[in-house]
Amino acid sequence: MEGMMTVESKINIFEIAQPPISCKLIIAAEQPVVNGIFVDFILFNHIDRDLSVLTWHTPLEGFYSKLFIITDQYNEQVDYQGPIIKRANPSPEDYQLIRANGNVATLLDLSLVYDLIPGDYKIKLNKKTLQVIENDMPFCICQCEIDTLTFRVN
To answer: How far apart are CA 142 and CA 127, in angstroms?
Structure first.
């Protein structure tokens, strides 16, 4: 048509790639206090290369810092009663290898360091950043995107 101008439309496509590392926290909805209160933490490596994660301040190292924020049914924080370790620089032994497309997991008993009495609770990770290396070189700082979970102690 005469007098009509065509306008080229430009579309920019932005894809969000899956992060190389992701986290999962699993806790049973109800647990009896006499057996311990267990939470499972899993790290997944989503790439085709081995990666290592600094375990400090993660469930992978166990209770050497306040790993979780736990609140009771009144939204009051439950105090962490375990050790807190101060350190120098990390050594190679402080990193956990996660094979290509693999995972690592740990199971922790919350009742060892949190005074959990019968009631309803919420739990989330306290520290959500992970220092990741590949072949002893910095690779990335990843975020653990984990929702707050609820559980009941009987």
So the answer is: 11
Q: What is the pLDDT of residues 60-94, one digit of tens each?
A: 999 999 999 999 999 999 999 999 998 889 999 99
Q: Which pTM does this prediction carry?
A: 0.83
Where is average pLDDT lowest: 12-21, 58-67, 83-92, 117-126?
12-21
**For residue 69, which phi and psi values (nearest 5 degrees)?**
-105, 115
Of 61, 79, 58, 68, residue with least CA distance to 151: 68
Distance separating alpha carbons of residues 30 and 154, to the nearest angstrom: 7
C-alpha distances (whole Å) from 142 to each of 31, 56, 145 are 31, 14, 9
Structure tokens belonging to residue 114: 């949190």
149: which strand partners? Answer: 123
Instruction: Answer whether 53's CB lies under 8 Å from 131's CB.
Output: yes
- In the three-class reduction of DSSP (H, G, I as helix; E, B as strand; rest coil), residue 100 is classed as coil
Q: Which residues contact 143 (CB under 8 A, 6 or more apart)?
A: 19, 128, 129, 130
- Which residues lie below 8 Å from residue 30, measured CB to CB, with a gap of 6+? 151, 152, 153, 154
Residues 74 and 151: their CA atoms lie apart, in Å, by: 14
User: Which domains are delineated in the chain?
Assistant: 21-153 (2.60.40.2970)
